[in-house]
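User: Can you predict the 3D structure of Probable membrane transporter protein? Sequence below.
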Amino acid sequence: MTSFGEVVLAMLAGAVVAAIGTPAGVSGAVFLLPVQISVLGVTGPAVSATNLLFNIVSTPLSLRRLSRRPAVDWSRLGPLIAVGVPAAVAGALARVTVLADPGRFRLLVAAVLLPLGLRLLWRSRRPRPAPAPIAAGAPARPGRVTLAALGAVAAAVGGVLGIGGGSLLAPALVAMFRHPTSQAATLALTITLTTSVAGLAAYTFFDAAGIGTAPAAPYWDVGLALGLGGLVGGLVGAALQHRIDERFLVAVLGTLSMVTAVSYLARG
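Assistant: Sure. Here are the predicted structure tokens for Probable membrane transporter protein:
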């Protein structure tokens, strides 16, 4: 049973991560994994399920804000959801079986945090580039197979880690297809919310049916506290976005990513 103090700590953690990550344009979900494991004492596959609950609570407000921005090509959303939902369920199944071992899971988290930290530190050393004009007047449009493959991989990894598929999909859309950041973010958040619901349902079912390693169901109180904290922190971060040096925040997140990844690799 989670104590009241741990619930308060979870809310504070969600708020701090969102407050730093929002103005830096970085998803906070991945940074909550080490917080859950090392600070809040969440164990087993429940770590991933609890993170998905955080996504479900904290994502809708950001999605509503972004949906007011320039129009998104929603025709791309159908294929992404079609492959993303079963891929997220497959990721959850892998988490409760072959990736249930804490050591393997820490290595997987490190494998995500290490390149993320390097990318953030590199980004913190460079000034924000001016938007480059696009000669053709529109972003490159990925084919259905390419888009489906990207969505499936992102959703599966997101289901394993509990970070949703969008945080991995958005950088690919921007880097590979020159998607405007705001449109990529809207698609990514929609996929994150969809795959998080599917993944959470899968983890809850696996736990109830005794499939794989327990506990697989989320720590509901911790996940809700993280999500509520994330809502508040996201609003604070958005309000402070133009008052704090983005590169400083990115450097902080990059350093935390690197330190956590190295410590997990050292533990094996």
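Residues 181-209 form the longest helix (29 residues). DSSP finds ten helices and no strands in the chain.
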